[in-house]
Specification:
The two termini are 39 Å apart. The chain has ten helices and ten strands. By secondary structure, the chain is of the alpha+beta class. β7, α9 and β8 form a beta-alpha-beta unit. The strands form three sheets. It has a six-stranded mixed β-sheet with strand order 1-2-8-7-6-5. The chain has a two-stranded antiparallel sheet with strand order 3-4. A two-stranded antiparallel ribbon has the order 9-10. The radius of gyration is 21 Å and the shape is globular. α1 crosses α10, α2 crosses α9 and α5 crosses α6. Helices cover 33% and strands 24% of the residues. It binds 5,10-methenyl-6,7,8-trihydrofolic acid (MHF) and the ligand O=c1ccn([C@H]2C[C@H](O)[C@@H](COP(=O)(O)O)O2)c(=O)[nH]1. Pfam families: Thymidylat_synt. Belongs to the thymidylate synthase family. Bacterial-type ThyA subfamily. Homodimer. Its EC number is 2.1.1.45.
Length: 318
């Protein structure tokens, strides 16, 4: 045993190592196969701008930040991501397009069409009612007729759904002691229409007596090598934005995972990452306080003192 002070990233590396050594081997939906543990928790200090950004490989935190801003915008089409050179969601619409048309287009070609042809993007670039749609516009139905003698009335979908994020900001401001600071993307009635059901699915927040804001994220399914680094950064960034908007200070991120796995074709990357030692103490800073949670821009964020080791490339299981 070494006696060095633990680094926040050790939790992540320990989780990786435990899955490698003790994970249940299983055939998953993608056909790639995983090793997996069920029910895991990681805790990260968020005070003074601390952020759980991995240092044993370069994490493209701006891509994760752009993804989070895209969720907050309520959109579900990959076009704005592609326009910002964020490729992480392209494989799912691409796979769908190839299966429907039989056309053997490559990723660059598909992204070029999404970028250059709005009609094509509308037809082929939408992921269905995923994260942002549920966060900002959860379907609501309103009566359009009086109840008849048996009590039946006609209901119609209100174009203005429920904005869970706006409601969250209000509840944090007006009722900080509440135990109901929650939003979720897991809309059971709409899962069928989603390209993928939400993985980081439920977020709960807690305000301490001292005005500190903590986030508890429940993630039902977690790709530890590729997904988790983005998910941790995203949750920390969201907590920082919410704290700024509500006059609180970030305190802690508690991440909990359901099926927490390593894909079989990630094992070399995992060995490489486990051979490295984390170092450094990056900090997330927000340059400006926009009027609302929905007015942030990528230029409002900077991570200071981030000097990661080299990027580790790995394929994503679609
Ligand atoms: N199997 C799987 N893993 C995931 O992490 C994942 C999905 N599917 N499906 C939906 C989203 C998309 N997400 C992704 C997809 C790809 C990368 C990825 O390839 N990351 C690389 C390169 C990033 C880049 O080029 O910007 C990385 O090294 O982080 C990360 C997150 C997270 N989610
Ligand atoms: O933000 C995300 C989104 C997705 N993932 C991973 C977790 C799984 O490996 C796949 C989803 O497959 P399911 O069969 O729907 O569980 O994507 C992630 O880690 N983070």
């Amino acid at each position: 045993m070494s006696s060095k002070t633990p680094h926040y990233e050790d939790q992540y590396l320990d989780l990786m190592r435990r899955i490698r050594d003790h994970g249940d081997e299983r055939l998953d939906r993608t056909g790639v196969g995983t090793r997996s543990l069920f029910g895991e928790q990681l805790r990260f200090d968020l005070r003074d701008g601390r952020v759980p950004l991995l240092t044993t490989k370069r994490v493209f935190w701006k891509a994760a930040a752009r993804e989070m801003l895209w969720f907050l915008s309520g959109q579900s089409n990959i076009r704005p991501l592609v326009e910002q050179n964020v490729h992480i969601w392209t494989d799912w619409p691409l796979d769908h397009y190839r299966r429907m048309t039989g056309e053997n287009i490559d990723r660059d070609g598909f992204e070029a069409r999404i970028r250059d042809d709005e009609d094509f993007a509308v037809r082929w670039g939408d992921l269905g009612p995923v994260y942002g749609v549920q966060w900002r516009n959860w379907p609501r139905y309103v009566p359009v007729s009086q109840p008849d003698e048996s009590g039946c009335a006609l209901y119609q979908r209100d174009p203005q759904g429920i904005d869970q994020m706006a409601a969250l900001v209000e509840s944090l401001r007006n009722d900080p002691a509440s135990r109901r600071h929650i939003f979720t993307g897991w809309n059971v009635a709409e899962l069928d229409g989603m390209a993928l059901p939400p993985c980081h699915m439920t977020y709960q927040f807690h305000v301490s007596g001292a005005g500190e804001l903590s986030c508890l994220l429940f993630q039902r399914s977690c790709d530890v090598l590729l997904g988790l680094p983005f998910n941790l950064f995203g949750a920390a960034m969201l907590t920082a934005m919410l704290a700024q908007q509500t006059g609180l200070t970030p305190q802690e991120l508690i991440w909990s995972g359901g099926d927490v796995h390593l894909y079989r074709n990630h094992m070399d990357a995992v060995e490489e990452q486990l051979s490295r030692t984390p170092h450094g103490d990056p900090r997330l800073e927000l340059f400006r306080k926009p009027d609302t949670l929905f007015d942030y821009d990528i230029g409002d964020f900077i991570v200071r003192d981030y000097a990661p080791q080299d990027h580790i490339r790995a394929p994503v299981a679609v």
